[in-house]
Amino acid sequence: MTAVAPRTERRTRANGIELAWDSFGDPEAPPLLLVMGLGAQMVAWDDAFCAALAQAGGHHVIRFDNRDIGHSTHLPHAGVPDIQALMLQAMAGRPLQVPYTLRDMADDCAGLLDALGIARAHVVGASMGGAIGQEMAIHHPGRMRSLTSIMSSTGDPALPPPTPEALAVLFAPAPTSFEAYLPHHAKLWRVLRGPDAFPLDEARDAERAQLAFLRGLNPGGVARQLAAVFASGNRKPALRAVQVPTLVIHGDVDPLVPVACGIDVAEAIPGATLLRIPRMGHALPIAMWPQIIEAIAAHTARAARRADH
Q1: Residue 31 DSSP SS3
Q2: Of 38, 72, 194, 243, which one has the greatest count of Cβ atoms within 10 A?
Q3: Number of structural domains the chain divides into
Q4: Residue 181 maps to a domain
Q5: Whole-model pTM?
Q6: Burial bucket for residue 171 (CB in 10 Å: 0-12, 13-18, 19+)
């Protein structure tokens, strides 16, 4: 894997908070915003993946820490939600009182584009980041050149749930010592990557765990993000009116967000393209980067051609 020069991280005021971000590729190239998932910092978009995506698509790739994670603003004053109580309220169909929603996080994305002087960007979101991208397509379509929603869902409660094992690792509290965090991180990704072995990723697990740990964990922020997911409900009716060119990427063996959820996103958004990847779970395995990057680059190129006509 080609080494990538260290990035210069910046913090920018956006939507009333500060967001940490960095970028890859030519700043004059068409911008592409990467949005990460629940509790995941921007470095979960691997440096080499970002550099390859910038090169393949001719993009200025921007990644950032969502609110309440990494080096972006943390919101401890908002309190730590009772996730179990919220789940019960959601199942009963009652409205949830939460610190913020995925729409607020989509507003963060639009605010970051504002702060960077970007009128419109390609948006690529993974997991919760895909749901945030969908919220952008619903509420900020004029800011988007295209959407790529990876391993995400419409939020329809009728869709299949995660496997018990995936739920267990998702809800397992992150240890506070690095020695305990290493095996916790390895087990989490061993489950989320699915039944197959991915030796290239397993070899990087310790390095990735160290990077996340040193940048700082925020369990309260993860709980608030999870509350935002629960409170944001079913996007499916609103997605039927989305006109943003959309690509949906989903793994066939995703244990956390089953493939039926990705199919549902693709069926909900008019004209969306679906790419199902065999053997891929709830992760972006190194061995599958070429296929994923090629699909995103082809999609953004199609969207650009469509916009020109």
Answers
A1: strand
A2: 72
A3: 1
A4: no
A5: 0.97
A6: exposed
Domain that holds residue 302: 10-160+217-308
Report the amino acid identity of residue 81: P
Q: Is residue 144 part of a domain?
A: yes
CATH number for 293: 3.40.50.1820
Residue 177 corresponds to which tokens in the numbers above? Answer: 């010592």
- pLDDT averaged over consecutive 10-residue blocks of the chain (309 residues)? 79 98 97 98 98 96 98 96 88 87 98 98 98 98 98 96 95 92 96 97 96 95 95 96 98 98 98 98 98 98 87
Residues that are catalytic: 127, 254, 282
Residue 203 lies in a domain: no
Place of tokens 């004029």: 142
Residue of 40, 16, 34, 44 lying closest to 115 (CA atoms) = 16
Domain presence at residue 167: no
CA 307 to chain centre: 25
Q: Which residues contact 31 (CB under 8 A, 6 or more apart)?
A: 59, 60, 62, 113, 116, 118, 120, 121, 122
